[in-house]
Amino acid sequence: MEEEKEVILNERINYALSMIKENSIYFAHPVNYYMGSSLNAHENKEDELIKIISKNFPEYAVHNPNQKHHQENYQIWKKETGSGMKYYFDIILPRMSAGIGLTFEDNMLGAGVFGELEKILELGKPIYEINENGIIFPIKKMDTSRKLSIEETQGRIYGGK
């Protein structure tokens, strides 16, 4: 049974890695910006921001975590390891060449976005932030005073703030 589970996880990993283009920038953003999500309160903003990122970073392919296989793998990792984010931290983020994260309107970073950017920076790769207006800034060091707790992040996502 354990061996079968490992085969399935490896198949999922291989498929996910096959979907990553060379020299990709990871677009970390709250799920309430995901197109097609029932939580999406920001119509077309995800697409708009991806176009801005592509224009400002033509050397990178934008990697959007809002993909069906990522959402499925998140749930599988959550069930099998206790943390869906382990999928991103262990499998996806190490394959990225850079990262960019969307801030909330008050310039704060959600817990997940903060963690993803921090991981990419720890890997020695450049990171940036982008706000809703498409203004981009490089990040040299993560500022923990801008990190929301998981509860605060969920309140903004699910509470519509």
Secondary-structure map with pairings?
Elements (H helix, E strand, L loop, with lengths): L1 H17 L5 E5 L16 H12 L4 E3 L4 H14 L3 H8 L5 E5 L8 H12 L4 E4 L5 E4 L10 H10 L2
Parallel strand pairs: 1-2, 1-3, 3-4
Antiparallel strand pairs: 4-5
Helix pairs in contact: 1-3, 3-4
Structural class: alpha/beta
Order of helices and strands: HEHEHHEHEEH
Largest sheet: spatial strand order: 2-1-3-4-5
Oligomer: single chain
Count of helix runs: 6
Can you give the mean pLDDT?
A: 91
| Unreliably modeled segments | none
Coarse morphology: globular
User: Sheet bearing the most strands, described?
Assistant: 5 strands, mixed
Tell me the number of strands: 5
In helices, the fraction of residues equals 40-55%
Strand content: 5-15%
- Summed up, the domain count is 1
State the distance separating the first and last CA atoms.
44 Å
What Rg do the Cα atoms give?
A: 15 Å
A few lines on this structure:
This protein has six helices and five strands.
